[in-house]
């Protein structure tokens, strides 16, 4: 079973997590295949054609976001967080991880965009960094909350 | 199946977290198996049975 390249991309954390991610990836593949089939029919019936670049972008982003969202909402990321104390500790960790992510993101933005000349250039670095940090924080918190709720229900 | 694993684990004096650590799984996985919400692989079944000192029949066989 493990003789597949897919296991290189799967996170550690036991067979349940890995099997669930494989299922989610398979769901994404089936949905994308169905949508592409519909596009093919639409192309032949209504003379409507999707550009190759747009199609590739759609497939990539759909699989990425579908898998990510299902993973976050399934509550399997924080498999060991069950008690109140652990949950509070994990919440603090989410705060610090988000701040660290924001700092690294803004450094990468700063390096790629260069030194800002005016406040609009500076806003181009600060704005996306704040947004990325907020999204990282929100998704991590949702994942933690879902995991905590799921684990609490399974507790002995 | 669910209660058999939980009973065997409690009999052995182990928590879900301890059993999970011993069979290289997560607490969540053990919890899901005990609640019959996940069917483990044969490898994991064997590891759990070995750790709890039971046979696969004792833990997983269900009379029809």
Describe this entry's structure for a reader:
The complex is a heterodimer of chains A (156) and B (64). With 156 residues, chain A is mostly helical. Chain A folds into two domains: 13-74; 84-154. Chain A has helices spanning 6-9, 14-46, 52-74, 84-113, 119-154. The model of chain A has no long low-confidence stretch (mean pLDDT 90). Chain B is an all-alpha fold. Chain B has a single domain, classed as Orthogonal Bundle (434 Repressor (Amino-terminal Domain)), CATH 1.10.260. The radius of gyration of chain B is 10 Å and the shape is globular. In chain B, 31% of the residues are buried. The mean pLDDT of chain B is 91. The interface between A and B is medium-sized, with 16 and 22 residues. Chain B: Pfam families: HTH_3.
Keywords:
heterodimer; A: 156 residues; mainly alpha; 2 domains; 81% helix; B: 64 residues; 434 Repressor (Amino-terminal Domain); 5 helices; 64% helix; globular; Cro/C1-type_HTH (chain B); Putative transcriptional regulator (chain B); DNA binding (chain B); Lambda_DNA-bd_dom_sf (chain B)
Structural class of chain A: mainly alpha
Order of helices and strands of chain B: HHHHH
Number of domains of chain A: 2
Distinct helical segment count of chain A: 5
Number of strands of chain B: 0
Largest sheet of chain B: none
Write down how many β-strands of chain A occur, each being a DSSP E stretch of 2 or more residues: 0
Domain module tally of chain B: 1
How many helices of chain B? 5
Strand content of chain B: under 5%
Largest interface: A-B, 16 and 22 residues
Helical fraction of chain B equals 55-70%
Poorly predicted spans of chain A: none
Mean pLDDT of chain B: 91
Question: Radius of gyration of chain A from the CA trace?
Answer: 20 Å
CATH superfamily of chain B: lambda repressor-like DNA-binding domains
Silhouette of chain A: flat
Organism (chain A): Virgibacillus chiguensis
Protein name (chain A): DUF3278 domain-containing protein
Keywords (chain A): Membrane, Transmembrane, Transmembrane helix
Transmembrane segments (chain A): 21-46, 52-73, 94-113, 119-139
């Amino acid at each position: 079973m493990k003789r597949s390249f897919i296991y290189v991309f799967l996170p550690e954390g036991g067979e349940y997590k890995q099997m669930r991610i494989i299922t989610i990836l398979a769901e994404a593949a089936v949905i994308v295949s169905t949508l592409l089939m519909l596009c093919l029919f639409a192309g032949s019936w209504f003379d409507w054609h999707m550009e190759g670049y747009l199609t590739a972008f759609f497939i990539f982003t759909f699989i990425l976001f579908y898998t990510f969202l299902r993973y976050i909402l399934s509550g399997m990321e924080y498999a060991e967080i069950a008690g109140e104390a652990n949950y509070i500790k994990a919440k603090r960790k989410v705060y610090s991880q988000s701040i660290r992510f924001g700092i690294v993101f803004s450094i990468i933005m700063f390096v790629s965009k260069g030194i800002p000349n005016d406040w609009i250039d500076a806003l181009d670095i600060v704005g996306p960094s704040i947004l990325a940090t907020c999204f990282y924080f929100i998704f991590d918190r949702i994942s933690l909350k879902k995991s905590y709720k799921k684990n609490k229900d399974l507790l002995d | 199946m669910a209660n058999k694993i939980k009973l065997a684990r409690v009999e052995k004096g182990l928590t879900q977290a301890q059993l999970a650590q011993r069979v290289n799984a997560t607490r969540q996985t053990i919890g899901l198996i005990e609640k019959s919400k996940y069917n483990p692989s044969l490898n994991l079944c064997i590891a759990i049975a070995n750790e709890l000192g039971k046979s696969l029949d004792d833990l997983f066989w269900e009379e029809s």
